[in-house]
Every structure is written in structure tokens, then in C-alpha cells.
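wait is this the right file?? whatever heres the structure
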């Protein structure tokens, strides 16, 4: 039983490292293509310009000084902020809608808005707030939070699809076949103990830490440095004992059955990686704790 637990710990550790690699690559892609900023803009468009063909209000919203300050520049381009708080959204929206007028004139200003759906929403909030400015602002913030919850769910599903593809690419590049890795750990006690030691050191070193899900980082160079460190340190350490890579593959001995089995192993790796680094990190810590509570083999 303890031997099987060690094999599982070793396998989970390897999948964690590959998931971290995929997550870091995802950060690079998100930084390059401003995925979170685009997701935010899509949500803002759904809120402010569903029937406004000219996007006048949305353009005014993006031209607001506060919105520009929350945005960031990479090179010569300015990207939408990756995050906008409900308070900031409400502040910018009120500034755009009122256009320098007092709150007493809000009802009249709402009637001049170019988007019919937005008019109806703000009218409803104003009626429910009974013209109380604080209540009205609170309702606008709640509305924004509800919309962004759905937008976050969409973004998570979108990035998970990318992670599956990323996982498959990583599996091929590193020849990371989950089935072969499991077989190697089960049949080679020396390799297993090396990987177990690395897994325990990693879990102890990250004790109390939390691995965040995919986050957009505006610093492309920081993500690139993180990627280089991960490949050159952790992954390079386990690649040799596990036989990852292609240098030991004898192509003349590969049969169609071997190729099919390899494809299956890569697919399992890709699906495992798509679960995300936080999932494998939490599982690793639990398994290491279970093992440490028992007697370690001599």
C-alpha cells in the first residue's frame, strides 16, 4: 500500500511540474494577447453597448481618465486593464452618464443614453433606489459583480481549452507519457526514491503557499523568466531519471501498438495538465502528509 502511495506521489509531482509549465506558458499567451483585458472589454460591451451601434458610451467609458490609468502600456500599445473593481466601474459610469451634471439630473441624463438596454437597467435601479444616490450606486456595483462572475466563468472555460492544447504540446515536446511515467516509477525503485525526495522537498518548500490559477501578467519578461527557471530547474531535475525527452528513443523498435499507446499517454497528460497546477499542488500536499504520518520505508 505504501509503495503504491509513493508511486502516486511521484506521478502527481511530475504532473504538477508539467501543469506549472502549461500555466506559465498560458501567462505568456495572456500577456501577449491581453486575454483578460479583452474579456473585460467584452463584458463592458455587453453592459454598455448591446444596442448602441456607434459604441458612443463604451468609447466614452474607455476614454475616462480613471479607466486609462488602470490600463497599461506594453511597447507602444495600450491594453485594457485585466481587472476593474465594482467601485471603479460605478465611478466611471456615473461620470460618463452625468457628464458633469448633478445627481438630481441623472434621470434626464439616462434618457439621453444611446443604448436602450442600458437605459432600462439604470431606470430600474433608480426606481428601486427611490432616487437615493448611495442605494443606486450599490445596485450598479452589484450588477457589475454579477456580470463579471459570468465573464470570469467564460474566461476560465476558454483558458482551460487552451491548457488542453498546451498540455498536449508539452507532452509531445518532453515525451511526457503519463502511462510510461507511471510504469517507470513502479518498476524502478531508485528513480522512484529520487522523485519522492524531490516531491517532498517541493511540498515542504511551498508549505503554506498557494498556487494561483492562471493570471494575466502585464510583465511579459517576468513570465518568460519564470518559464526559463521552471524548465531549467525543476523539470530538468526530473527529466533525466524519468527518461523524459527523445534522446533515448530507438525509432526502429517503435511498433504501431507502441505509437498508439504513446498517443494515449500523451492524451492523458494533456487532460491532467488541463486540471491546473492548484489541483495537483493541493493533491501533492495531501498525499505527502498521508505518507509522512506513516512509517517511511527503510
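ok assuming it is, sequence goes like this
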Amino acid at each position: 500500500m505504501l509503495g503504491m502511495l509513493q508511486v502516486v506521489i511521484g506521478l502527481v509531482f511530475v504532473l504538477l511540474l508539467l501543469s506549472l509549465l502549461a500555466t506559465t506558458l498560458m501567462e505568456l499567451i495572456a500577456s501577449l494577447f491581453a486575454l483578460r483585458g479583452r474579456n473585460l472589454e467584452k463584458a463592458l460591451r455587453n453592459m454598455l453597448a448591446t444596442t448602441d451601434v456607434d459604441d458612443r458610451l463604451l468609447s466614452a467609458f474607455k476614454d475616462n481618465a480613471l479607466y486609462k490609468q488602470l490600463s497599461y502600456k506594453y511597447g507602444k500599445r495600450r491594453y485594457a486593464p485585466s481587472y476593474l473593481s465594482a467601485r471603479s466601474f460605478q465611478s466611471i459610469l456615473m461620470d460618463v452618464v452625468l457628464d458633469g451634471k448633478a445627481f438630481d439630473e441623472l434621470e434626464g441624463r439616462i434618457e439621453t443614453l444611446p443604448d436602450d438596454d442600458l437605459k432600462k437597467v439604470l431606470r430600474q435601479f433608480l426606481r428601486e433606489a427611490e432616487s437615493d444616490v448611495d442605494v443606486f450606486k450599490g445596485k450598479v456595483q452589484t450588477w457589475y459583480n454579477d456580470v463579471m462572475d459570468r465573464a470570469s466563468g467564460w474566461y476560465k472555460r476558454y483558458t482551460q481549452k487552451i491548457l488542453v492544447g498546451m498540455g498536449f504540446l508539452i507532452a509531445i515536446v518532453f515525451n511526457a507519457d503519463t502511462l510510461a511515467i507511471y510504469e517507470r516509477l513502479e518498476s524502478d525503485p531508485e528513480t522512484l526514491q529520487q522523485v519522492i525526495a524531490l516531491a517532498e522537498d517541493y511540498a515542504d518548500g511551498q508549505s503554506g503557499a498557494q498556487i494561483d490559477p492562471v493570471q494575466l501578467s502585464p510583465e511579459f519578461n517576468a513570465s518568460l523568466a519564470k518559464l526559463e527557471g521552471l524548465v531549467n530547474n525543476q523539470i530538468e531535475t526530473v527529466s533525466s531519471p524519468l527518461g523524459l525527452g527523445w534522446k533515448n528513443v530507438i525509432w526502429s523498435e517503435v511498433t504501431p501498438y507502441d505509437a498508439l499507446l504513446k498517443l494515449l499517454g500523451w492524451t492523458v497528460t494533456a487532460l491532467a495538465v488541463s486540471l491546473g497546477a492548484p489541483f495537483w499542488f493541493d493533491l501533492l500536499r495531501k498525499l505527502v502528509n498521508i505518507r509522512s504520518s506513516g512509517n517511511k520505508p527503510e
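Residues 2-33+159-293 form one domain. so i think its the right one actually
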